[in-house]
Amino acid sequence: MFTGIVEELGEVTAVEDLGDAARFRLRGPVVTEGARHGDSIAVNGVCLTVVDHDGDSFTADVMAETLTRSSLGALAPGSRVNLERPTAVGGRLGGHLVQGHVDGVGTLTAREPSAHWELVTVSLPAHLARYVVEKGSITVDGVSLTVVEAGEEHFTISLIPTTLALTTLGHKQPGDPVNLEVDVIAKYVERMLGHRAAPATAGEESR
């Protein structure tokens, strides 16, 4: 489990094509400190498993499903990525509950800079719109953010200077893809309410 508070702006140093998968080598001295084989590290909001690590870098295997359903398939050597280690039990929950399971890919469509912050608009896949609410939480490229405006096809977020300087969101341009993870609590509530509204079966009626 992650919190969406990015620890480090890392870099992809190599991508190896494995046919139905890819192996990434990523540089990140903060997140690799004390890392072990099998540990989890979120890369642009995607939970990956450490295969190997050496000095300030680690490798992770990414299967085809992840490459096609997230923006990781567009990464290349030199790409900058947001990195975060899982939160420790008893640690501070600085952002919100983030699983590292991307729900869809949006596209940054507009940036409106101001003196001390920037308003960013992101396109929203139709099947995710019902989970995004004004002032609710959303994860964009692994960054925990608050929704400013929620539309049927887009949402907006405000980025402070720290977020602009220390995450990929300060460098993304209109047309660039971003990984989206909606609030998991909303999905569980929808699932439970759906079961509650479902008609009882014959067996249930006889109890």
TrEMBL record:
Catalyzes the dismutation of two molecules of 6,7-dimethyl-8-ribityllumazine, resulting in the formation of riboflavin and 5-amino-6-(D-ribitylamino)uracil. It comes from the Bacteria. Residues 1-96, 97-193 form the Lumazine-binding domain. It comes from Streptomyces albidoflavus. This is Riboflavin synthase. It holds the Pfam family Lum_binding. Gene3D superfamilies: 2.40.30.20. It catalyses: 2 6,7-dimethyl-8-(1-D-ribityl)lumazine + H(+) = 5-amino-6-(D-ribitylamino)uracil + riboflavin. InterPro entries: ATP_synth_asu-like_sf, Lumazine-bd, Lumazine-bd_dom, Riboflavin_synthase-like_b-brl. The lineage of its organism: Bacteria, Bacillati, Actinomycetota, Actinomycetes, Kitasatosporales.
